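Notes from the 1:1 (GR / supervisor)

We went over the backlog. Supervisor wanted to see one worked example end to end before approving the batch request, so GR pasted a single chain during the call. The sequence is below; no edits were made to it. Supervisor asked that the structure be written out right there so they could see what the output format looks like.
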Amino acid sequence: MKTRKIVAVSFCVLAFVAVVVGLVTYFFGFGSIKDVPNVPHVEQVGGEYHLVTNYNPNYYYNFKVEKFVGDQYLAILNFSTKENNMNLGDVEEFDLDDDYRFSVCFTAENGARGKYSGTYTWKISDQFEGSVEYDKVKFEDETLTWNAVDGAEVYTYVLIDATGREILRDSISENHFSCSSLDAGQYKVYINAGVNNVQVLPSEFGEGAEFVIERQNEISNVTNEGGFLFVQCTQKVKEFQIFVNDELKLTIQAGESDTANYFLDASALLKDMDFSENKVEICSSDNGFIKASTKVQIN
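Structure output shown during the call:
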């Protein structure tokens, strides 16, 4: 009987310890957040003011809003959200004539919080009047350009892909930026203009402008080993065509590739081919925004 009691007590103690360890691990181990978000800033979108920080898919966010009262800042709101922005209209006490201070931290699903960012102090006194003329936005030579706005010292642009996902946001002093790092496809850009003064809001983003990135594929090299082809391209493609004496003889699916290099089995057509008597060429087909390559001879 005594042994059973000892076993029962030991089991309860171990179970209790396991629960405690589990809770401690969950709240302090799993919930430990070392990353710190960027200092937030204010943007005006659709006539409403939004507080924005950088996006990180690993975390949620907690925005802290402080109001200057007397001789100090007092916290008036902690706003938790899955998004990297909050609408300042959610602050009932928000008054454009008062001073505010904003900061943000990353949070975990279990409620754990990381370290708050530096603070952004803001009292709106004016809004930049000039705005970007979207009908003058141009995309040429892998570069997006727009007419400079009188008095503007900084531009913020936001790129949206065809799925509606934000893929790039940056602030620059020039009225152009390179798109060479982007994949071919259809995009929409939103641009505002402003000055280097946190008390003056930038212009609204407006309706945006759509543009398309198309690229020409080129086959840089073809190696033939008994009809098995190694094809190096400048762009990712989906399909190749093989011509013999200018007549289409074979269409081959490219398959997946991270490097735009492809291995093709054309042995059924080429293994017995007399290349001295026939002109054999290969090209890639159109692939959406990737245009077909010119023909390259196979030897």
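Supervisor's comment: The chain has two helices and 25 strands.
Batch request approved.
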